[in-house]
Amino acid sequence: MLKLGGRVIEIKGAQPATTMLFSVSTNKLLPKVLKESKAYLVDEMDVPEDFAHYLILDSKKDLIESIPPGSEFTILPEDYAYLGNNDVIRLSSDRSSIRVLFRETASNNSILITEQCNHYCLMCSQPPKAHDDSWIIEETFKLIPLIPKTTKEIGFTGGEPTLFGDRFLELLRYTKSELPITAIHILSNGRSFKSEEFSKKYSEINHFDMMVGIPIYSDDPAQHDYIVQAKGAFDETIQGILNLKRLGQKVEIRIVLHKQSITRLINLCEFIGRNLIFVDHVALMGLEMIGFTRANLEELWIDPIVYRDTLSEAVGILAAYGLSVSVYNHQLCLVNSDIKPYYRKSISDWKNEFAPECAGCKKISECGGFFSSGIQNGYSKNLLPFQ
Amino acid sequence: MSKFQPLASFLSSHHEYKLLPFKFEQLNDQDYVLTNLTGDYLSVPRAQLNRIVEHQVTPDEPIYSDLRSKHFIYEPNDIAPVELLGLKLRTKYSRLAEFTNLHIFVVTLRCDHSCPYCQVSRQSEDKAAFDMTPAMADKALDFVFKTPSKAIKIEFQGGEPLLNFEMVRYVVLEAEKRNAVTQRELAFVIATTLSLVTDDILSFCRDHNIVLSSSLDGPEELHNANRPRPNRNSHQKFVEGLNKARLALGFDNVSALMTTTEASLPMVNDIIDEYLRLGFRGIFLRPLSPYGFAIKTKKYRSYNTQRWLEFYKEGLNYIIELNRSGVKFSEHYTSLILTKMMTSTDPGYVDLMNPAGLGIAAIVFNYDGGVYASDESRMLAEMGDQTFLLGNVLVNTYEEVMLSDKLLDALEESFTLSVPMCSDCAFEPYCGAEPVYHHAIHKDFVAKKPESEFCNRNMSIFKHILGLMHSDKFTKQLFLEWSTRC
Amino acid sequence: MSVTTLTFDERIYPVDALQKAAYRFMNLFVVDFSIDKNLIICSLKPTQNSSQEGMDYHIDEFKKEVLDQVLRLKIKAETEDVRNLILGIAFSKSGFQ
To answer: What is this structure's pTM?
Structure first.
């Protein structure tokens, strides 16, 4: 698992109590005008001049002598050896810390724009915080221009990104103009779109490829409301989905599979086929053992092998209705082979690992593996390597 | 860290739910089936039905969740159920706005077969008497392109259309010419026995994407008995024609329909085997034709219905077992009904539509220029009853035909949601108005449904299908796949 | 075959429900209706399609059908408003397409 943020060993030369965003560069040949806003990742003795900041891994500490005198620099722990050209980082001088906000080589990049949320899902992997964190969305406006324009797709997540209303829409518009060929994937509970006005403004952004991923955990409104811990959530979420589809916007339905949502998964898939057939994609996702999941383990944990047939039946129903379906975050030995056409090797590269039991498995390259949190916090006792 | 609330705190307090519009029918000895405006269904024990209507079901019961999710009840603050029902209903009726799609051109009555159940064909060489003229075809095409429908299907029937292939050619070329301007999705079908198919005919069909629809009543003996021809070789000619046509047009571009007669009734599995043998991937188990037989008594009619239902159930069962053993084969009538049960799409099958498909879904231009509201309407006329003759292309305008009292009365009076029994029936979303049949047998567009074999037969089929849906997971999944293929 | 008479208190059974039940059973009985103060009297005369043995069973079924029709009327009355709302949404000019 990649470490995406934490303390650095030292930041030298920067203004006190400042936060700086930098695009990382390994390119010596950049013209001066471009160097001036980037941080150079020092690799060997021949260090180019005129960069705004220099990054040196602890193991290469002796290269400090080679950087231009008087320059700002940061000494990074070895955890950050993966950094590369065009990655974007935030350095905080008062907290002596780094946060990696964008990685060019990542399979997908999600930008967290708030930790505030109007839901409190039993299995939330990003537990909400109530205080005002609008500085994050403001910083995102500064982050967007640093992202390479060739990026295929970025995600906006939270918390609930739409809580910022018009400011969030402005961010989307801004992203569209700064990154005109980059697709956008937004994770949202969809409730803000219950407002026709908000949905209309969203649709008027007229983005070439923008999709909202909206969770529905049950066909029973009461059970869905319980899982997201918000009364009235289901009803508003559906209204939001309908408004978005009326305006021709892309919608994906996301279902996290756990002990609660499994009970009515078949009913939910029938409900989607009957009522929401026009959605663009349905994602069935394995549980992440992180955040609130650990507090609610008793209610949530179920060994995927126990629900393998239910999963097959669910996928069968969605596929029969002609919906586009994907199954994410499951291990191959715990699902039936009939879902192979829909199985995605999907866990973000910074999150995934394999268990010791997986040694020697013939299908390890086709399998998505585990969330690192799963390896740490608990996984199926029924793993069986393929011979 | 805040506490998590238990499920109980998200359930509403008792007796708060409201009913959404629904109907019900007895399904079997224990259960009733509920259906709502859009055909969503749920089967419940009879005792529960009362509790549901009396607002006695409590939110902690599993049936409460099912009723809410399938849109039979809702809670006072819910907005989504009403919106979703409105949306589903709109989708269900959206075909109405498209208006007439199927246009049947009867290019000749002449035929090389003399099937006893056929009301229309003539054994004759007299082209002048029994062939459609170009003048009629031109006027008919005027009518065709007046429809707002984005998709137009032109089907050639007869007699045997290939005996007047010059007219088929004429209509196809003319239609394509006109379509260059209006840009509809144009499709052509020829209903033919395949006995007279030639290389020239096939290359024309290939060049203009015309598909063929033929008749296969069953194994050779049955087929030939049903469909007499000089040399008694209808089946053999069919197979020869089938192979030639498939080669020229593509395997799936030749389909087959069966006609069910008395002789067919004991041998449904053999008929299905014959379809399998010849590579077809499905069959349409059609009802016995009510026309042409002098069926006078109610008893005889209902006896026939019972026998046909056995035929259908046995055949369907065999087909399900075929699928279970890995053979992909479907039954078409069941699939049409399943589409109405499992989705909000109307499959557009003329005989199962409400309002009736007469004129507004399908229309027939006869060899003499007569305009008929449906294929059955034409057959009725050949038997002497002109009730559904709407006009003549050479004499009447489009408006005179489509707005005629004859058509509008039939549509209005047979509208299922207004007539006795149908308006209360739980199966109404799956069924249709059938004014032509009811007029033919009962002299009434509506008839008394308890006496109607159309009603009897369909109700049995609906109950049977619902029963099968719950019988096992394999059948349920199979039926779901059939339902979305239409 | 003999005529069976059933009486229903019109304060409990709407006459609509009785008439609709009679309609459904027209193959098996012809029903004559008359009224005496608060009582609706139904005379069930078997048609040629029914047999004497089956009569008891059919009469029980008729009574059950009457109850079903009462329930149907209740549902219809209660859901009239929301039905019109749904139809209004379905046939409105705005929205999908």
So the answer is: 0.94
